Amino acid sequence: MERIPILRMGSTLLVTIQIDMQDQTAVALQDDLADRIAQTGASGVLIDISALEIVDSFVGRMLTSISGIARVLSATTVVGGMQPAVAITLVELGLSLEGVRMALNIERGMALLQRGESDSAR
Residues 19-33: pLDDT tens digits? Predict the structure, then answer.
């Protein structure tokens, strides 16, 4: 099974998904991210899905689950780079990705996380 790399950029963990995610890969990513958030004390997780052409209902639920786990560990999750076809598919499947913050691209996602950090520092 292929593992998805998790990079640390300051207080943010960056995940760039470059492969079509199978169920096992999504579960491993969830576990790996939970461990890395706990180890590093990261305050943000940015998941880049711009390379994904297909997101099924399982992967959609896993993104929601990852966001919930990160929130419990005091980290904010932003998913960025969703292609229009993926967004349409998720809506047609009835998945709203509740609790998951979205950004048009990675730059906006990083800015969203940085704004959140400065808001919480006040």
Answer: 888 889 999 999 999
